[in-house]
What does this fold into?
Amino acid sequence: MPANAPIGVFDSGIGGLSVLREIRALLPHEQLIYIADSRHMPYGSKAQAFIQARALTLSEFLCQQQAKAIVVACNTATAAAAELLRGRMTLPVVGMEPAVKPAAAASRNGHIGVLATEGTLKSARFAALLSRFADGLAVHTQPCHGLVELVERGQEDSPAARMLLKRYLAPLLHAGVDTIILGCTHYPFLKPLITEIAGPDIALIDTGAAVARHLRHRLEQQALLAPQAQQGQAAFWTSGDTAQLQPVIARLWPEPVVVQALPPAAISDQLSAQ
Ligand code: DGL
It folds into this structure.
């Protein structure tokens, strides 16, 4: 596997761009391939078998593009499919999960909130995470239906987003949390609004930078870091509507953006969505 090969990154939609920008900041020489699985978004309410099928299909496409590593830039897909991917792929697979351990270290009063999708919060992986790192803490979880779709439409600062966030944050604030985990890669785009509603004293913790550091470590271990002479570029693919996605990604990504359509075999899946 050549060190100048690309890193493949995928999410149900554009949420993973919050991880991609951390990867770009830490590893400016890497070639990046990003897939937004927009046709099948949101993952949060879908069956585990469906998400596993999508994760496998997208990872196979990334392997065809000669990816040297895969980053599952999605908490829901990591919970559903990371172990499966690791069992099937020979290349490094980096996943992500709600930052319970850093939140436990940051909290002063032991009350932590977790905003995430239903899929993540119901997963065995999340339960294992809590029993490992949240012993003795009060963890208040909140599934956030509808937020992902608003971010996908570029409406992260809209009245609809404000209304939903007020509703989802109210029980956490009532419980007195001092730390909130953003357990979905779409939510960092909602940070300004969350801070406005929750107030500046509540710490918001997300995982993008930690994932980028972990990725660098994995690449280093395998002597797969890109040569310093190489200037990194990003290529974007989607299972959804390229024309619709183009301006949404362009708004969030600081370099010129071209969005390409995935080949038909990587778009549809045999399994039904539910
Ligand atoms: N961005 C994803 C996550 O981190 C999934 C959002 C969704 O499609 O429901 O969980």
About this structure: The chain has a mean pLDDT of 95.
